Amino acid sequence: MAYGLAAHAACLPAIPLHAEQDNFAAPEAPRSMRDYGDDLLPKDEKSRNEVLKSAAFDATIYGMSAYLQYEQMYRQVFDRTSSNFTGFNRFAHERALAGPGYATFKVPNSDTLYSTAWIDLSKGPVEITIPPTSLKYFTLNIFDIFGNPSNLSNRTIGFKGGRFLLVPPGWHGSPPPGTTVYRAATVQLWALMRAFAQTDKEVVYARHFQDSVTITPPTASATQASADIAPPAPAPGAKGFLRVLDYILRTDGCQPGEDALVSRFRPLGVLGDRPADPSTLDTASRAAIESGYASAVAVIAASKSQLGVSTGTGWMKVNKGEYGFNYLRRSVTNTAGLGANVREENASYTTFSDANGKPLNGATANYTLRLQTPPPVNAFWSVTLYDAKSFALHPNPINRYLVSDRTAGLKVAADGSISIQIQHAPSRSGNWLPAPTGPFFIVLRAYSPKPEMLGGGWLPPGIEADMAA
């Protein structure tokens, strides 16, 4: 266990190790193994393993969302063999709407074209320019490395566009004239751009918008990483996870108020005098760490079904994006699907069951979702179906993955209601949403929701099971 303990400055500020003579506060925690002494961990193996297991559990709950984002970043920024390699500060554009083969992240929408870029602010501010547009909806959804979202969107900046200077934590420079400063929480950021499109004509216009959004780094060399340590390749298990978490905390630091929690990860080798490497530990210690990691992964998996707040009709209102110190919610949300936005941008509801609480399954029933009043939005809404096993869009003969207010042939009743048929058997209805012969789930998304939706005045009705399939 000969790990050093030099911490990232963002987590342990540079404060003298000993109190001033007229200061009665306790001294700051020592920064190295030799200062801690031999009592960093219990010498008794059973006690030591309990500490390591507990620390690994907490580290996994805390850092899983960051690890999952890092996997995406590694493929696009560091892995030159990847099909979507760009390096830092360059977009990779999806030119077609997401379908069953979409692999960038889980539970994609099929309402918008996606573009992804990873931003590196380690060499200084990066400028993003957004052109004026008549798109029905767009957003540059910007996430810090831990998955906390913000938006440069038509909701926050309007349709006139602008120039935005993304600056790293602690930056105090002078922005160029005509730019608006965006203060980032971490050095590495994920920019997930969405541009609305449904018809072929809209797709063409959205592609033009994608190409018109530009990223300008401080220097040409800033397209590559500038971390103090080499970025580790993602790998399964606690060993791979801790190497990545150590890299993230060294590069990006932790957020205000997290110092005490992050210090608990030091016995795991995180933020030591050298990059974390659990393989150097003895067999019993490695087993304890793997056990704590596995327990946390199991808790995250078991908590997926209760993500959000129940509406009482089978749906869960997903409170995305606002995590605070609720790291379990953050990890569960990002395990279910990366890129979760705040409700003000995209209010969403998810259900795995019908109105009677029975799991949705295209092999056992046909279903109807009757929207007496369509979702109140300023942009658009959609109802999308996903396979419950793969969390992917379900392939079907008509290539329809959602029904929305823009669906061609959508039938609206005389009273304004919309009934969506959800079943495996083919239907000629423009309101048919094809389902697999197996379990599935539904996500209702409302882009730029109106106040009555945000306040809970509008809720989706339960999905009714019609008959045996």
Walk me through what this model shows:
Among the domains are: 132 residues, Sandwich (Immunoglobulin-like); 163 residues, Jelly Rolls (Sandwich). The protein starts with 32 loop residues before the first helix and ends with a strand. The radius of gyration is 24 Å and the shape is globular. It is 23% helix and 22% strand. The longest helix has 34 residues. It is built from nine helices and 19 strands. By secondary structure, the protein is an alpha+beta fold. The strands form four sheets. Strands 10-11-12-18-14-15 form a six-stranded antiparallel beta sheet. It has a five-stranded antiparallel beta sheet with strand order 1-2-8-4-5. The N terminus is likely disordered.
Topology, element by element:
Elements: H1 33-36, H2 45-78, E1 92-93, E2 112-120, E3 126-130, E4 138-144, E5 149-153, H3 154-157, E6 162-167, E7 179-183, E8 188-196, H4 200-212, E9 214-216, H5 237-252, H6 259-263, H7 283-302, E10 309-310, E11 316-317, H8 327-336, E12 346-351, E13 366-371, E14 377-387, E15 402-404, E16 418-423, E17 432-434, E18 440-449, H9 451-454, E19 464-467
Parallel strand pairs: 6-7, 16-17
Antiparallel strand pairs: 1-2, 2-8, 3-6, 3-9, 4-5, 4-8, 10-11, 11-12, 12-18, 13-16, 13-19, 14-15, 14-18
